[in-house]
Amino acid sequence: MATKTIMLNCAAGMSTSLLVKKMQEAAKAQGKDYEIFACPASEADNKLANQEINCVLLGPQVGYMKADFEKKLEGTGIPMGVIPMQDYGMMNGKKVLEFADSLMA
């Protein structure tokens, strides 16, 4: 069982899957037992209802949905943030993992 679960949301779940792989590699290298997965923003409600999520990250391309996600997560204590464009573009899994960790701190 993973100690933390991080959900990345994007438009279709495709581009983010490479970033998920890079984040998983970074977590493993740091000895962290994290479950990290990507899903389309349209499936977020279902995932939030059926899974224990510790952090929600939005891809820059769905950053405009930030207010919607803030409403969804209101009262849950689940931190949420928009992945910085540069880290997303460079597929910098280590930096995005650090960003998620900072949100969960």
From TrEMBL:
Modified residues (Phosphocysteine): C10
Gene3D superfamilies documented for this protein: 3.40.50.2300
Domain named PTS EIIB type-3: residues: 3-105
InterPro entries: PTS_EIIB-like_sf, PTS_EIIB_2/3, PTS_EIIB_3, PTS_sugar-specific_EIIB
Keyword Phosphoprotein in record: yes
Keyword Phosphoprotein: yes
Highest taxon, organism lineage: Bacteria
Pfam families: PTS_IIB
Alphabetical UniProt keywords: Kinase, Phosphoprotein, Phosphotransferase system, Sugar transport, Transferase, Transport
Protein name: PTS sugar transporter subunit IIB
Organism whose genome encodes this protein: Lactobacillus nasalidis
